[in-house]
From TrEMBL, chain A:
One of its GO terms (molecular function) is sodium:proton antiporter activity. InterPro entries: Cation/H_exchanger_CPA1 (IPR018422), Cation/H_exchanger_TM (IPR006153), Na/H_exchanger_3/5 (IPR018410), NaH_exchanger (IPR004709). Its main location: membrane. Residues 818-834 have a biased composition (Pro residues). The keyword Nucleus does not apply. It holds the Pfam family Na_H_Exchanger. It catalyses: Na(+)(in) + H(+)(out) = Na(+)(out) + H(+)(in). Plasma membrane Na(+)/H(+) antiporter. Exchanges intracellular H(+) ions for extracellular Na(+) in 1:1 stoichiometry, playing a key role in salt and fluid absorption and pH homeostasis. Major apical Na(+)/H(+) exchanger in kidney and intestine playing an important role in renal and intestine Na(+) absorption and blood pressure regulation. It comes from the Eukaryota. This is Sodium/hydrogen exchanger. It is found in: Apical cell membrane; Early endosome membrane; Recycling endosome membrane. Gene3D superfamilies: 6.10.140.1330.
UniProtKB/TrEMBL annotation, chain B:
Keywords: Calcium, Cell membrane, Cytoplasm, Lipoprotein, Membrane, Metal-binding, Myristate, Nucleus, Phosphoprotein, Protein transport, Repeat, Transport. InterPro entries: Calcineurin_B_homologous, EF-hand-dom_pair, EF_Hand_1_Ca_BS, EF_hand_dom. The lineage of its organism: Eukaryota, Metazoa, Chordata, Craniata, Vertebrata. Gene3D superfamilies: EF-hand. One of its GO terms (cellular component) is plasma membrane. Belongs to the calcineurin regulatory subunit family. CHP subfamily. It comes from Neolamprologus brichardi. It comes from the Eukaryota. It is found in: Cell membrane; Cytoplasm; Nucleus. This is Calcineurin-like EF-hand protein 2. GO terms for biological process: protein transport. GO terms for molecular function: calcium ion binding. The keyword rRNA-binding does not apply. CDD domains: EFh. Residues 79-114, 120-155 form the EF-hand domain.
Length: 834, 164
C-alpha cells in the first residue's frame, strides 16, 4: 500500500514537473549553462505581468524570476525521488545495481520530456557536471579513502592508472583507425588524431561508476582499492591526453613534431604533480584551519567543503588535474581534521559528505539516462560503435593482465588470476567520458555526435550490463570477498606478534624492507607534520579507539533507555532481574555489547546511584558469563590501545600525541629493560610469570566482584595510579606505589614487571580501593552521560572527561618529579566538575 | 644467506650464539625478541648452526600457492601450517603443546605497554582464551589456534619478500 502511494505521488510529481517544464520551456528565455538543465529553447519572452501594469497586482506570476532555481531544485528532487522508488524494493537492487536502475529511470524521464516537448530540453551539461556534480564525489572519495591500504598498493595503482590508461587510449585509437582504414566503418570523416582523441576520452575508468557498482559487490579490499585508486588517479592521464590530442587536432597533423610531443609528455608530469601539489596544499590549509576553529564549532564542518571545492577549482583554473587535487586534499586532511575537530563536527562532515556525494551520483546517473533520449545526437554507425565496445572491453583485459602479471613479480602476495579478471571487468566507463565527449568542439570534429552516441553506448554497456553481471561473476569465480567478521582477540594479538616477528627477522637479516620507508615517513610525520597540523589538545587526546568505545557506550546507553521506556522506565531500576534479562538480551544481540554502562546508565540519577553497587554485585553473583561481556569490548579496545607498535605498523587514523611519542621512547626503554632483566635471570627460563596463577585463582571470585567497579573506574581513570581518589585505607600496596618513583634515570615503569609475581597480591587491592570511592568520582560523569547528550557541548564534555584524566595521567607519568603521595586524602572527584 | 650468517657470526665460530643475536640492537628493542631468539635455538642447544638458521628463516618464505595442488604441502617449511606452528611456538615457551593462560599473559605483558594494569591484562588473556578455547580446557591447543586464525592471511603476515 505504501509503495502504491509513493508511486502515485511520484507520478504526480513527474506530471507536474513535466507540465511545469514544458511551460517553462515555452516561456523561458535562454539561460546560461549555469544550470544543470541547460534549456535551450527561446520562444516567447518574459512572463506574465511584464507589460505596464494598470492596477495594483495582488499576486503575480513570477516564473521567470525563479525559473532557473526552480528547475534546478525540481530536478534534484525528481532524481532523488527516483532513487527513493528504486530503493523501495530491495529484491531488485540485489540483482541490478542501483546505478543501472537510475539510468533506466533517466530513460523513462527523458521519454516523458521528449513526449512533452518533442525536443530534449535537458541533458547532462558538461559544465554543470564537472563543476557542480563531480567535485563532491571526489572529495568524498578522498576523505574516506583507506589511507593505509591506498598507500600500500600505490605502486600498483599508479602503474595501472598511468600505463594502463595510456595503453587503453593508444590501442583503442589505433585499432579504430586501422579499422577505419580497412573500411569497416564506412564513410567517416575522422582522422588519426581524432581517433586518438576519442581513444583518450574513452580510456578512463570512471570513479563514480566503479564506486556505484563495487559498492554492492564487496570484493576483497586489495582488489577494490586497486581498481578504485586507478579510477581516481587516471584523471591525471586523461586530462593530459585529452588536452594534448585536442591541441593536436587544432594544430592539425602537419605541425606536430618532436617538440610538441615532448611538450605533451612534460605536460603530463606538470599536470599530475601540479594537481597533487595543489591538493596537498589545500589539505594542509584545511588542517591548519581546523586547528583554530575551536570557537566556531558550529560552522566548522563547512570549511572542509568549501576548501575542498576550492582545491578543485584552483586546479582547474591552473589547468591541472582537478580530480587529483581534490583526492589528495581529502587523503591528506582526513586524519588531522578528525583529530582537530569536535566530535559532532566530524560526524557532520561525514554525513553531509555522504549526502552530497550520493545525491550527486544519483543526479548524474539519471541525467545520463535522460541525455540519451535525444534524436539530435543519434548517429548510428554499426561498425564504429560495435568495434569501440569490443575494443574497449578486450584491451582492458589485455592491459590489466599484462601489467598485473609484471607487478605480481614484485608483490609479496600476488594478485590472483580471478582477481585480475574482476579488475578488468571492473573497468567501467562513466559520466566523465560522456562529459569529455560533449566538450568536443564540433567544428574541429565533425563526427562529434557519433562519438557522443558511442560514448553513451559504452557507458550503458559497462554500467548496466557489466554492473548487473558483476555480482554473479564474483560469486561464480569465487573471488575473495571483504572480510566482515570482527577479528577475535587472539587474532589481534597474533597479528601484532607477527608484526614484531617480521621486524625481528628483518633485523636479523639486515635487510631493509619497504617498511623502512614507512617508518621513515612515520617519523617525519610525527616530528613535523603533527605538531604543525594538529591541535595540541588533540595530540594529547586519545585516538579513535577511545572514540569507538565512547560511541559504543552512548549507543548502549540509548539502547538501555529505549528498552527502559518500553518496559516502563523505573521498573528497570527497581527490578534487578529485569536488568539481568536485559543484559542477557543484549548479550544475545550484540556479541560485544557494552553493558559496562547500562546498569549504571540510569536516567533517574538521584535515587539510583545507591543501586549501582548492589546491581553490579548481584549481576556478578549471577553468572560469570554476564560478567565477561562488559570486558569484551573493553578488552578489545584495550588491546588496540596498548599494544606496542612494531616498526612496521603505521597507524591509520591515529592521532599521534606527545604522549604517544613519549611512550615510544618509553616502550623502547621498557622493552630493553625487560629483555636485559630476562637475560639476567636466565635465558631459557620462561617460568617467571607462573606464580601468579595461584593467586589469580584465589582472587578470581573476589576480583570479579570488584572488577565491575574497577572496570568502570579504570576506564574513566585509566590507570588510576595517579589520581589518588580516595585511598581511604592504607594498603600495603603503597609500597608498590612508591616504586613508581623514578629510579636512576631509567624510566620507572620498566621495573614494574619485576613486581608482578610478588605484588599481584598487593596489586589487586588498589584497584579494588579504586573501585569503591570511584563510584562517587565516576557517577557525575555517568550522570552526565545519563542525560543523553543532545548537544555538541555535552558530547564534548563527555569526550573530555576521560581524556582529561588521562592527560593528567600523562603528566604524571612524564613528570618524574612528582611522586604520588603515599596516603592522599580523598580529594573531591577531579573530573566531576569539568 | 651464508654471507648473512657469517656477518652475524661475529666470533667466527661457524655457529651463532645468543650474544650474536643480541648484538643486533633492533632485536633488543623488540618486545618478543627474546622469544624469537629462542626459536632459533631449538631444544636446549646453545648455538645455531647454519642449517638450522636457514631452516628457521625458511618459515618466512612466502607461501608458494601453486604447490597446493601437489600433495607435499605439509613438509614445506613455508606452508601455512608450518608458519602457524612457528607462531604457536612463540607463544608456547614450555613446549607442552598448549598455550596456557600464563603463557598468553606473558606474551601480552611483553607486547602491551605498561599502562595496562595487570588486571586488565588478565581479562584480555581470559577473553582471548575464551574466544578461542573450544574444548574448554582453559588453554589453547594448536588446533584451536589454527582454527581461530583461519581467517587471517598468514601468508602475507608471515612472509618476508627477500627470502623467496
Amino acid at each position: 500500500m505504501a509503495t502504491l502511494w509513493r508511486f502515485t505521488l511520484f507520478l504526480c510529481m513527474l506530471l507536474m514537473a513535466c507540465g511545469g517544464l514544458s511551460l517553462a520551456s515555452k516561456e523561458a528565455k535562454t539561460r546560461s549553462s549555469q544550470t544543470e538543465t541547460g534549456t535551450h529553447n527561446t520562444t516567447e519572452e518574459g512572463g506574465h505581468g511584464a507589460g505596464p501594469i494598470t492596477t495594483l497586482p495582488i499576486v503575480t506570476w513570477k516564473w521567470d524570476h525563479i525559473s532557473v532555481q526552480y528547475l534546478v531544485a525540481l530536478w534534484v528532487l525528481v532524481c532523488w525521488l527516483c532513487k527513493l522508488l528504486i530503493e523501495a524494493n530491495h529484491n531488485v537492487t540485489n540483482y541490478i545495481p542501483e546505478s543501472a536502475l537510475l539510468i533506466c529511470s533517466g530513460f523513462i524521464l527523458g521519454g516523458m520530456i521528449w513526449g512533452a516537448d518533442k525536443v530534449q530540453t535537458f541533458s547532462l551539461n558538461p559544465t554543470v557536471f564537472f563543476y557542480f556534480l563531480l567535485p563532491q564525489i571526489i572529495l568524498d572519495s578522498g576523505y574516506h579513502m583507506p589511507n593505509k591500504l591506498f598507500f600500500t598498493n600505490l605502486g600498483a595503482i599508479l602503474i595501472h592508472a598511468v600505463i594502463g590508461t595510456c595503453w587503453n587510449a593508444a590501442s583503442l585509437g589505433l585499432s579504430l583507425w586501422g579499422c577505419h582504414m580497412g573500411g569497416a566503418m564506412g564513410d567517416l570523416d575522422i582522422g588519426l588524431l581524432q581517433y586518438l582523441l576519442f581513444g583518450s576520452l574513452m580510456a578512463a575508468v570512471d570513479p563514480v561508476a566503479v564506486l556505484a557498482v563495487f559498492d554492492q559487490v564487496h570484493v576483497n579490499e586489495v582488489l577494490f582499492i586497486i581498481v578504485f585508486g586507478e579510477s581516481l588517479l587516471n584523471d591525471g592521464v586523461t586530462v593530459v591526453l585529452f588536452n594534448v590530442f585536442d591541441a593536436f587536432v587544432s594544430l592539425g597533423g602537419g605541425r606536430i613534431n618532436a617538440a610538441e610531443i615532448i611538450k605533451g609528455i612534460v605536460s603530463f608530469f606538470v599536470v599530475a604533480f601540479g594537481g597533487s601539489l595543489v591538493g596537498i596544499a589545500f589539505g594542509i590549509l584545511i588542517s591548519l584551519l581546523t586547528r583554530c576553529t575551536k570557537n566556531i564549532q558550529i560552522i566548522e564542518p563547512g570549511f572542509i567543503f568549501v576548501m575542498g571545492y576550492l582545491s578543485y577549482l584552483t586546479a582547474e583554473m591552473l589547468s591541472l588535474s582537478a580530480i587529483l587535487s581534490t583526492t589528495f586534499c581529502g587523503v591528506l586532511c582526513q586524519k588531522y581534521v578528525r583529530a582537530n575537530m569536535d566530535e559532532s563536527s566530524v560526524q557532520t562532515v561525514k554525513y553531509a559528505m555522504k549526502v552530497f556525494a550520493n545525491g550527486s551520483e544519483t543526479i548524474i546517473f539519471v541525467f545520463l539516462g535522460i541525455s540519451a533520449i535525444d534524436k539530435v545526437i543519434w548517429v548510428w554507425n554499426t561498425g564504429f560503435i560495435l568495434l569501440t565496445v569490443f575494443f574497449v572491453f578486450v584491451y582492458r583485459f589485455i592491459g590489466v593482465f599484462f601489467l598485473q602479471w609484471i607487478l605480481n613479480r614484485y608483490r609479496l602476495v600476488p594478485v590472483e588470476l580471478m582477481d585480475m579478471v574482476i579488475m578488468s571487468y571492473g573497468g567501467l566507463r562513466g559520466a566523465v567520458a560522456y562529459g569529455l565527449a560533449v566538450l568536443l568542439d564540433e567544428k574541429k570534429i565533425k563526427e562529434k555526435n557519433l562519438m557522443i552516441c558511442t560514448t553513451l553506448i559504452v557507458v550503458y554497456f559497462t554500467v548496466i550490463l557489466q554492473g548487473i553481471t558483476m555480482k554473479p561473476l564474483v560469486m561464480w569465480l569465487k573471488v575473495k570477498r571483504a572480510a566482515v567478521a570482527e577479528v577475535s582477540l587472539l587474532e589481534k594479538i597474533t597479528n601484532k606478534m607477527f608484526n614484531h616477528t617480521l621486524v625481528a627477522i628483518e633485523d636479523i637479516s639486515g635487510q631493509i624492507g619497504d617498511n623502512y620507508f614507512r617508518s621513515k615517513w612515520r617519523h617525519f610525520e610525527e616530528k613535523w607534520m603533527t605538531p604543525f597540523l594538529m591541535k595540541p589538545s588533540a595530540r594529547k587526546k586519545q585516538d579513535d579507539v577511545f572514540d569507538v568505545f565512547h560511541q559504543l557506550n552512548l549507543k548502549d546507553a540509548m539502547e538501555y533507555v529505549t528498552e527502559g521506556e518500553r518496559r516502563g522506565s523505573l521498573e528497570f531500576v527497581r527490578n534487578d532481574s529485569a536488568i539481568l534479562d536485559f543484559k542477557k538480551k543484549l548479550e544475545s544481540e550484540y556479541t560485544e555489547a557494552m553493558p559496562d554502562i547500562p546498569p549504571y546508565m540510569i536516567h533517574d540519577d538521584g535515587a539510583i546511584r545507591d543501586h549501582i553497587p548492589s546491581v553490579s554485585l548481584e549481576m556478578h553473583e549471577q553468572t560469570m558469563k554476564a560478567m565477561r561481556e562488559p570486558e569484551a569490548v573493553d578488552v578489545h579496545h584495550l588491546l588496540d590501545q596498548h599494544l606496542y607498535k612494531s616498526r612496521k605498523q603505521y597507524r591509520h587514523g591515529f592521532s599521534r600525541s606527545d604522549f604517544k611519542i613519549n611512550r615510544d621512547e618509553k616502550e623502547v626503554q621498557e622493552i630493553f629493560q625487560r629483555t636485559m632483566r630476562n637475560r639476567l635471570e636466565s635465558f631459557k627460563s620462561a617460568k617467571m610469570g607462573v606464580s601468579p596463577p595461584k593467586t589469580l585463582v584465589k582472587y578470581s571470585k573476589k576480583e570479579q566482584q570488584e572488577k565491575v567497579k574497577t572496570k568502570r573506574g579504570n576506564k574513566h581513570t585509566l590507570p588510576p595510579f595517579t589520581d589518588a581518589s580516595g585511598y581511604d585505607s592504607s594498603y600495603p600496596s603503597f609500597s608498590m606505589r612508591a616504586t613508581y618513583r623514578p629510579g636512576g634515570g631509567i624510566e620507572n615503569p620498566a621495573f614494574m614487571p619485576d613486581l608482578y609475581p610478588t605484588d599481584l597480591l598487593q596489586e589487586i587491592p588498589p584497584w579494588l580501593a579504586e573501585g569503591e570511592p570511584d563510584s562517587s568520582m565516576v557517577a557525575p560523569s555517568l550522570r552526565a552521560q545519563a542525560n543523553l547528550p543532545n548537544s555538541p557541548m555535552e558530547m564534548h564534555r563527555l569526550g573530555l572527561l576521560p581524556a582529561s584524566t588521562r592527560s593528567t595521567d600523562t603528566k604524571q607519568m612524564n613528570n618524574d618529579q612528582l611522586p604520588p603521595p603515599p596516603t592522599p586524602p580523598p580529594p573531591p572527584p577531579p573530573s566531576g566538575h569539568m | 644467506m651464508f654471507i648473512l650468517f657469517e656477518s652475524l657470526d661475529r666470533d667466527n665460530r661457524g655457529c651463532l650464539s645468543p650474544d650474536d643475536f643480541e648484538a643486533l640492537g633492533g632485536l633488543a628493542m623488540n618486545p618478543i625478541g627474546g622469544r624469537i631468539m629462542e626459536a632459533f635455538f631449538s631444544s636446549g642447544q646453545d648455538t645455531v648452526d647454519f642449517s638450522s638458521f636457514v631452516r628457521i628463516l625458511a618459515h618466512f618464505r612466502p607461501t608458494d600457492r601453486n604447490r597446493n595442488k601437489e600433495g607435499a604441502q605439509q613438509e614445506l617449511p613455508s606452508s601455512r601450517t608450518r608458519k602457524l606452528k612457528f607462531a604457536f611456538q612463540l607463544y608456547d615457551m614450555d613446549r607442552d603443546g598448549k598455550i596456557s593462560r600464563e603463557e598468553l599473559l606473558q606474551v601480552l605483558r611483553a607486547m602491551l605497554g605498561l599502562q595496562v594494569t595487570e588486571e586488565q591484562l588478565q581479562s584480555i588473556a581470559e577473553r582471548a582464551i575464551q574466544e578461542a578455547d573450544l574444548d574448554k580446557d582453559d588453554a589453547i591447543s594448536f588446533d584451536e589456534f589454527k582454527k581461530s586464525l583461519e581467517k587471517t592471511d598468514i601468508d602475507t603476515k608471515m612472509s618476508v619478500s627477500f627470502l623467496k
